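lol forgot to send this yesterday, sorry. struct tokens for the thing we talked abt
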């Protein structure tokens, strides 16, 4: 009996192993059939008609509607797609965002499939992405278009997502209330810093732009520049820009021509005042380096001292703009007349140095404003205040040189260098040669006292 039981146990051992194996296989099979199927919202993403773009960005909501964890293993898509999904686990009842971008290689209609592979099934879960691209852009303000499925309208489970919001504007004369026929807007995205200018010749302008925060620079010939900030929402925006006619210079050319220059008292030339009989109207755009290297006592503090001294004799016929650059470029004081010098002085007092140097972008912004505010027959000048060198592209150098030689709209570039090293002075000297301006070195308080005032007087002398 004992031998029989022993023999029975030995004979049944393989059967026990088989049962164990079958039990394990059953468990895996049970897990497999109970593995959750992902549910994409939306399952079909329709971009509609894209008027112009270079990149299309959006996302999908992947939901696990089951009772067990779902694991996304990989996502397969065409080469122009970039899909952000790794080996991600979605707990039961939870969701995650699957982000993707498309870099179209041609215009026309497109219809592609993203295949999601997940645990529990050898077959992928397919998501369709379609739309139509009218114009393929290079990098520009509207080149990269972002879409939020939640903000689109949904119909039968399919998303119809607006590509860009419509910004509708009118240009109006603030004094007469009449439509201004010719005008333009420079859109500056506050997220990407990309720029795009749109113009009109009938007083009405409709622009399709991505949603987000913007700085607007609104201009029209014969009118003062309007600068403002605004967030363009998904539903778009409508507004009217009321522009004020530019004041005519108070200097009467005829009377100046009749009055010989020799009759002007010589002491006015040495005075700290900017007598209108002696000095032309000024359009000055200050481009100020506020990167961290300007913190030193002989740099930004000396610049503030010089600017405060300059503001004393500034007249109502003069225009002042302040653009700062550090990590980014900012229009710290939009163009104001001498009547608003208090605003400039308040800003000067708050300037603090931090960040890195974005000098090249600063030059572009400064010249754009200088051209917009151009005073015919006046001194139009960009004054760069910095302590070091930075990269300036060949294109920007050419712009500086051409602006200094333009007989109809001459704008010169001068540089005030604060405790600059020899290599920086060499680079800044090259810029002033191209810009037909002056390179002024400031190393102490005495030099800073009248540095800016002397430069303005020298350049605006009749």
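and heres what i got for the seq, position by position
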């Amino acid at each position: 009996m004992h031998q029989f039981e022993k023999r029975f146990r030995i004979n049944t051992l393989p059967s026990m192993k088989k049962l164990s194996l079958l039990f394990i296989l059953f468990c895996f099979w049970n897990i497999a059939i109970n593995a959750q199927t992902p549910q994409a919202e939306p399952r079909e993403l329709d971009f509609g008609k894209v008027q112009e773009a270079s990149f299309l960005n959006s996302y999908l909501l992947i939901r696990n509607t089951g009772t067990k964890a779902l694991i996304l293993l990989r996502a397969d898509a065409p080469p122009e797609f970039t899909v952000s999904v790794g080996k991600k686990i979605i707990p039961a009842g939870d969701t995650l965002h699957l982000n993707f971008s498309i870099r179209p290689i041609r215009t026309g209609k497109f219809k592609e499939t993203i295949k999601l592979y997940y645990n529990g099934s050898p077959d992928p879960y397919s998501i369709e992405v379609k739309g139509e691209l009218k114009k393929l852009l290079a990098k520009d303000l509207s080149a990269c278009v972002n879409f939020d499925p939640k903000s689109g309208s949904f119909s039968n489970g399919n998303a119809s997502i607006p590509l860009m919001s419509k910004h509708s504007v009118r240009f109006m004369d603030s004094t007469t209330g009449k439509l201004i026929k010719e005008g333009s807007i420079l859109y500056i995205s506050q997220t990407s810093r990309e720029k795009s200018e749109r113009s009109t010749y009938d007083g009405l302008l409709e622009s399709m732009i991505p949603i987000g925060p913007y700085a607007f620079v609104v201009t029209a010939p014969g009118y003062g520049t309007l600068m403002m900030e605004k967030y363009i929402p998904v539903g778009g925006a409508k507004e009217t820009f009321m522009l004020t006619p530019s004041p005519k210079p108070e200097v009467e050319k005829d009377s100046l021509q009749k009055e010989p220059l020799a009759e002007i008292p010589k002491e006015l030339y040495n005075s700290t005042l900017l007598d209108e009989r002696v000095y032309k109207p000024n359009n000055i755009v200050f481009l100020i380096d506020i990167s961290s290297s300007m913190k030193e006592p002989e740099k930004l503090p000396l610049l503030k001292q010089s600017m405060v001294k300059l503001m004393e004799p500034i007249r109502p016929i003069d225009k002042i703009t302040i653009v700062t650059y550090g990590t980014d470029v900012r229009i710290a004081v939009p163009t104001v007349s001498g009547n608003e010098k208090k605003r400039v002085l308040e800003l000067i007092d708050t300037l603090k140095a931090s960040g890195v140097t974005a000098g090249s972008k600063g030059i572009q912004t400064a010249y754009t404003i200088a051209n917009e505010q151009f005073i015919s027959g006046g001194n139009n000048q960009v004054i760069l205040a910095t302590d070091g060198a930075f990269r300036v592209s060949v294109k920007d150098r050419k712009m500086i040189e051409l602006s200094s030689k333009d007989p109809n709209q001459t704008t010169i570039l001068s540089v005030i260098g604060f405790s600059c090293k020899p290599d920086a002075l060499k680079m800044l000297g090259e810029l002033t040669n191209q810009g037909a301006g002056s390179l002024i070195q400031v190393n102490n308080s005495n030099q800073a006292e009248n540095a800016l005032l002397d430069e303005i007087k020298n350049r605006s002398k009749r």
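The chain has a mean pLDDT of 76. anyway ping me if u want another try
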